Amino acid sequence: MMRVGSYMATPHSDSGAFSFSLLCLTLLLSSYLLSAETHEEEEDTPVTRFQHYLRINTAHPSPDYSSAVSYLKAQAHSIGLQTKILEFVPGKPLLLLTWPGSIPSLPSLVFNSHLDSVPAEPDKWLHHPFSAFRTQNGAVYARGAQDDKCIAMQYLEAIRNLKARGFSPLRNVHVSLVPDEEIGGFDGAAKFVESKEFEELNVGFALDEGQASPGDEYRVFYADRVPWNLKIKAKGQPGHGSRMYDNSAMENLMKSLEVVSRFRESQFDVVKAGKAMNSEVVSVNPVYVKAGLPTEDGFAMNVQPSEAEAGFDLRLTPTTDPEEMRRRIAAEWAPAVRNMSYEIIEKGPLRDYIGRPIMTATNDSNPWWLVFKQAIESAGGKLSKPEILASTTDARYLRQKGIPVLGFSPMRNTPILLHEHNEHLQDTVYLKGIEVYESLISSLSTFTEASH
Prior knowledge:
Blueprint: E1 2-4, E2 7-9, H1 14-42, H2 46-54, H3 65-78, E3 82-89, E4 92-99, E5 108-114, E6 133-134, E7 139-141, H4 149-164, E8 173-178, H5 189-192, H6 196-201, E9 203-208, E10 221-224, E11 226-235, E12 239-240, H7 249-272, E13 283-291, E14 294-295, E15 298-299, E16 303-304, E17 307-316, H8 322-333, E18 340-346, H9 367-378, E19 387-389, H10 395-400, E20 405-407, E21 424-426, H11 427-445
Parallel strand pairs: 5-8, 5-9, 9-20, 10-19
Antiparallel strand pairs: 1-2, 3-4, 4-8, 6-7, 7-21, 11-17, 11-18, 12-16, 13-17, 14-15
Helix pairs in contact: 2-4, 4-11, 9-11
Signal peptide: 1-36
Subcellular location: Cytoplasm
GO molecular function, one term: aminoacylase activity
């Protein structure tokens, strides 16, 4: 007779024997699955290394830069890269990795990626945003899976594979892993490009992040739109809620909102008509309205306030005339004759160091473009029409220095999920991206005809 828990089974009990056998089978299966899961966690593969990086919580407002830098530095040392930690602002490290080329006098390459991520709401996700959970069909769920921890690890995995094959670059190859991109990059890339350390790199060409491609063609970006934070304020005589008179603060603000809305519609109509992409027009969107006299249960409904304010997210294309935009705001959106005022907070440069629009050429005039395009094709890929990125990246700071930079993330047939709930990336897409970067790094680093 055998005792299993509180269950008694004897050889003479058919039902008992069956139940006992089923229990044993269940225990064996559970043990196997647990062992397999543990083995998967311990297995050192490109995907598990990616998952490890994703599990480091680098989301604002308290990104764990220290753990991220330590992990990436260890990965770099494991493949023989030189490492340097720069810190232009205390607590915000920048990790610079270098693979020396055999002709270091040639202009170098920079592959850029940011360490930080936007916040996530765990209760809105299918899987915890910092678990890097991998589903049975290979989708890895994590904040930063697309934006943009994938490319940092793909750079390293591509270099790992190239080194294993005995490849040696002619140019110096640098990987820059920077802080603060998600909040403007002012303490990261912006300070880096102004530093002596950056000048000494002698950068000839750079790649930075792009976006996923829902279709079969890889998207590539040659410029970013530039954000302005616009605040419009209105003043007027306060009064009783029952009175009707001209030029109250709310009336003046609403007139401005109508004017701004008409401008927005005129730009959006061009996009809807298929004459331009969203990123090729100036966008403006209201993000808040602030007015009224607060009370314990809301606002005083019988008082017309003396001040009212609205905020707008304004995005300018690289070719937008900033002075013309300022004139429009002053004359039409917030005219002083209606007791209006405004404040513009510029969130980055619109022109490079010699006054040119901040764009990278994607034609025969740019020899780097031709090499980039050929490398993508060699990896079995195809590029869609080059685009302006609707949002912003750290690429703008390098372009401001006159350095050609392309925004590129090798994720095709992938939904665009950056900053969204349930951000994820398919493992097969991630692995294919490593192959693409192998082609890019080998082609770009052995190209000798380009100079500054």
